[in-house]
Batch of 2 targets.
Target 1
Amino acid sequence: MHIFVEKIVGETVEIVNEDFFHLARVLRCRKGDSLTIVSLSDSFYVQATVASINKHNIIATINSKIEKPPKKYPQIILYQAIAKKAKMDVILQKAVELGVSKIVPLITKNVVPENPNVERWRTIVKEASMQSRRVDIPVVEQPITLSEMLKQKPATCMCLVESGEQRLDFRDYLEGLDKSVQQLGVVIGAEGGFTQPEKLLFLENNVAAISFGENILRTETAAIAALSVLKWFYKI
């Protein structure tokens, strides 16, 4: 079992609130069970054993400390146009499993109007991090507009995943990048794609348009495909 805590101090760890409920009520954790507990603010995680299960907490005894592996580069930032609820859930889960460092939800012209629940997205990302046994939790930022994203442009390099013959092949794009690039942003549009004015914005900001070929990909397929290629190419 794999959980996250803010900090680990001493030889025991107290597990409370939603993590306690998840372990005790959902996973039916028992005394003597093994836990992997990751400290979000330290450079290590621990292997521990459940010592006691109480009414409102679990106490685990630390058996060993393990240093977290060094971060791999480039760090991948997913700029994802907000999708419908079920599709957005899948995108978030798979992005975590495929090693993304940060997720920035985008508000574009073709986004289906909804009230985005960022806290829910963060919960999904945390649970996916636990399930995939990551030693970190990717950041999920507040939704921003395309103009705001391009103005900030925090990633060293950015590419836009599109369909069509006139786009740059993804493999050719990656092979042409500087090998020391620290961050790579991948931009995925909504179901209806990007409008012509939005595409012009990308062009004006030197965002490369790359392609997987002629077939039009759904937004969740495009995100998963792009991140899968990056995980393989960079061994992240």
Target 2
Amino acid sequence: MAKRTNKAGTSGRFGARYGVVIRNRVKTIEAEQKKSHECPVCHHASVKRVSSGIWACRHCSAKFAAGAYTPEAKKAISQVSEN
């Protein structure tokens, strides 16, 4: 029996629904959030997502808040007026 989700990946659960652009976007976001990331404390590739915005290192047990889908949250640029 052939593999059914080779091309679809994790978005294969949606079947033919929601359009190809949305399914591909979900596929790339889920692949990024499920992979192991580098810990900012011990620098091992062992950080996994606990819940939305909560990340934990399995090596040094460090827990920290970051982005919802990646621990490398994009830094916001704030413009402060000098008045």
